[in-house]
Amino acid sequence: DFTMTLYLRHYWKDERLSFPSTNNKSMTFDGRLVKKIWVPDVFFVHSKRSFIHDTTTDNIMLRVFPDGHVLYSMRVTVTAMCNMDFSHFPLDSQTCSLELESYAYTDEDLMLYWKNGNESLKTDEKISLSQFLIQKFHTTSRLAFYSSTGWYNRLYINFTLRRHIFFFLLQTYFPATLMVMLSWVSFWIDRRAVPARVSLGITTVLTMSTIITGVNASMPRVSYIKAVDIYLWVSFVFVFLSVLEYAAVNYLTTVQERKERKLRERFSCSCGIPHSKTMMLDGNYSESDANSLAGYTRNQMAPEEEKPEKMVVHLAMSNESNSSRKRGLKGHVGLRIIQNTHAIDKYSRLIFPGTYIFFNLIYWSVFS
């Protein structure tokens, strides 16, 4: 529904109210005379609530001209019904109308028409609404038929409202887009960091559910899908799929590790370690210390009873230079990082953002 305050002015001619006058161009009266003469019985069709302002007195004015022409004006506030279609909400435009009609007189007794067509409707240029932009006002008239009473003249005040989108961009679209982008962060997190990826996925899912609930709580209970529902639910699906993506990655990683463990147990051996030498380390030796200790056996370094806290380890000492060993270490670390990223994560980094951008292009081109 909508609420409108207006000055409703009626013009008609009643020769019974004419009077001879040479000085007065017209005579003005208040609402007390209205009850003593005939006035049109105009009412608002499909109105829910309406009243005439009465502060400090009834806002009614009656002006009579010498030739019998009458101007009858009143200040009215009316709340009327408007059939709105929210299928494009919040990118929608609504057309509403305020309808006026005689309650008792048919078109054979009383003819209602706009005095100057669209010029009969004067609006304040400073009118502004918080959620809508008033695009245009125009007037129409047609006949309305009632099966029990007949045909009546009906006047229409039509106006078109276009909803402001910026509020919904800040409150709905932008947070939903951020949640979808936040769910993509899990694709760059190590697949073995289970708490980090699971908590991130659950948080984004719950946040999207809160956004959807908040939007629907402020909307009428309509039985069709709105444009904002399409955007929010598609975003929710993207967030939910990111959680399922990690579930698939975690499951495939577990299966792969189980297979590798079985292979190691089947073909366990200590081959491939050339020129093993024995030495003693306590975990505090650097690489240079380890090189200087190469070639010494356990008995040459210290008796077992004197160094009970030391650990005897076997090191594979090769003849390569330190630089080659460092390059090998860096290559091993790089291989480790690559192995910690599953192939599904690599593809998801491209598929998820690309698909979501494509959806946004289609969405805004269709509804905007």
From TrEMBL:
Decide whether keyword Transport is in the record: yes
The chemistry this enzyme catalyses reads: chloride(in) = chloride(out)
Q: Which residues cross the membrane?
A: 165-186, 198-218, 230-252, 350-367
The keyword Manganese belongs to this UniProt entry's keyword annotation:
no
Q: Which residues form the Neurotransmitter-gated ion-channel ligand-binding domain?
A: 1-164
Instruction: Return the similarity comment.
Output: Belongs to the ligand-gated ion channel (TC 1.A.9) family.
The protein's name: GABA(C) receptor
- What organism is the protein native to? Quiscalus mexicanus
Encoding gene, per UniProt annotation: Gabrr2
